[in-house]
Amino acid sequence: MGKILIAPNHEEINGPLIFLAGPTEGVHDWQSEAIGFFQINPNISVASPRRGIEKQSDIGGKKYREQFEWERLYLEYAARHGVVMFWLPKSAENIEQSSYAHTFLFELGEFVTRYSSEKFRIVVGIEKEFPEERFIREMLAFKIPDVPISNNLNDTCGRVLEMAIGLR
């Protein structure tokens, strides 16, 4: 496999990068599952913003800024030289729906807006029971109809891998 980048570690990337965009708190560790899926290809690197055991909400000050800058760097690299995978899993914890995945949804909205002019490679997957799943599916189908939307993590990873292999 190519490189596996886990925030906040930096490495130079040459070749396609898959960025795993999605919630990191209140959800099972789907990022590790996705990394395992992509390990079958030695030419593709993967960036995951999920930091080991540290909760994102516990990150403050300098570490917060470091995390933010890391995510922006590799998210933008993947947008230009790879695939951005947006995975919307249902919550694994009892979290108020209005606060679950709220920063991630902002990022998804940004990329949906940018997609019409930049046409980078993105794949979206939405698990049943994700808050406002129906609305999000309808909005994505309306705003970015040519972007595939999957229903489970394996299908989402499969579509991402097909796109990434085509870049090599």
Polypeptide structure, described:
The chain has five helices and six strands. It has helices at 30-38, 61-81, 102-118, 133-143, 153-165; strands at 4-6, 17-21, 45-48, 82-88, 122-126, 149-150. The protein has a single domain (4-165), classed as Rossmann fold, CATH 3.40.50. It is of the alpha/beta class and 168 residues long. Strand 4 (82-88), helix 3 and strand 5 form a beta-alpha-beta unit. Helices cover 42% and strands 15% of the residues.
Topology:
Layout: E1 4-6, E2 17-21, H1 30-38, E3 45-48, H2 61-81, E4 82-88, H3 102-118, E5 122-126, H4 133-143, E6 149-150, H5 153-165
Parallel strand pairs: 1-3, 2-3, 2-4, 4-5, 5-6
- The averaged pLDDT comes out at 90
Shape: globular
Alpha-beta content class: alpha/beta
Strands, count? 6
Instruction: List segments where confidence is low: pLDDT < 50 over at least 5 consecutive residues.
Output: none
- Distance between termini? 13 Å
Strand order of the largest sheet: 1-3-2-4-5-6
Give the fraction of residues assigned to helices. 40-55%
Query: How many structural units, i.e. domains?
Result: 1
Write down the CATH topology.
Answer: Rossmann fold
Strand content: 15-25%
Largest β-sheet summary = 6 strands, parallel
Number of helices: 5
Under the CATH scheme, which class?
A: Alpha Beta
SSE topology string: EEHEHEHEHEH
Q: What is the radius of gyration?
A: 15 Å
- Multimer state: single chain
Corresponding CATH architecture: 3-Layer(aba) Sandwich
InterPro entries: Nuc_deoxyri_tr2 (IPR039470)
Pfam families: Nuc_deoxyri_tr2
Protein name: Nucleoside 2-deoxyribosyltransferase
